């Protein structure tokens, strides 16, 4: 059975990351499929070996559509090994702030997901995305003086996290919360 990578994107960056994760996993554990949550047939969730689910992050939270999706499909999602990724732009902040913010955001989102999904998320990571100032929500515009526009996707970091998913699925190491650490 294939591995499913599902995503909810705000401006396209999360889709890029999700497709890359699916491709990288498929190289090691084929097959893997990648789908947007909005067009995915939820009746097929039980047809997958494991699920990797991700969302863009706005205001330190997953997009509302992603949260609605996981709440509505909780039983099917939690019946499989479940991995989660978030795509944001903490690295767009000044260096003294970015690492602490990324750690806080990762913990905050992970804890929220664990509550929503009965503690079934094996691993979670916040990955870099692309930030255009015109895409920043109006209530966040004041932070634009601190934030630098740019593409913060780190393909090596994304591959490393996808590798950790494969290792966990192959049972080569016991998955743990600190299995993957962002730098």
UniProtKB/TrEMBL annotation:
GO biological process, one term: heme biosynthetic process
Flavodoxin-like domain mapped to chain residues: 3-166
Superkingdom assignment: Eukaryota
GO terms of molecular function: electron transfer activity; FMN binding; menaquinone-dependent protoporphyrinogen oxidase activity
Family annotation (SUPFAM superfamilies): Flavoproteins
Pfam name, any one: Flavodoxin_5
Stored InterPro entries: Flavodoxin/NO_synth, Flavodoxin_CS, Flavodoxin_dom, Flavoprotein-like_sf, Protoporphyrinogen_IX_DH
UniProt-listed PANTHER family: PROTOPORPHYRINOGEN IX DEHYDROGENASE [MENAQUINONE], PROTOPORPHYRINOGEN IX DEHYDROGENASE [QUINONE]
Name of the featured protein: Flavo protein
Lineage: Eukaryota, Fungi, Dikarya, Ascomycota, Pezizomycotina
């Amino acid at each position: 059975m294939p591995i499913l990578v599902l995503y909810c994107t705000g401006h396209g960056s999360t889709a890029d990351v999700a497709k890359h994760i699916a491709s990288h996993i498929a190289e090691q554990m084929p097959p893997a499929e990648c789908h947007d949550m909005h067009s995915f047939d939820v009746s097929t969730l039980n047809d997958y070996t494991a699920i990797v689910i991700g969302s863009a992050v706005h205001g330190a939270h997953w997009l509302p559509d992603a949260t609605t999706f996981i709440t509505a499909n909780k039983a099917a999602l939690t019946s499989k090994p479940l991995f989660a990724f978030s795509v944001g732009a903490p690295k767009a902040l000044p260096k003294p702030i970015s690492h602490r913010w990324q750690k806080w955001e990762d913990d905050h989102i992970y804890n929220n997901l664990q509550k929503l999904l009965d503690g079934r998320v094996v691993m979670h990571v916040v990955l870099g995305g692309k930030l255009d100032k015109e895409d920043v929500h109006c209530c966040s515009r004041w932070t634009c003086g601190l934030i630098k526009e740019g593409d913060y996707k780190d393909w090596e970091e994304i591959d490393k996290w996808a590798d950790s998913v494969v290792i966990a699925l192959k049972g080569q190491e016991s998955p743990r919360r600190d299995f993957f650490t962002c730098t």
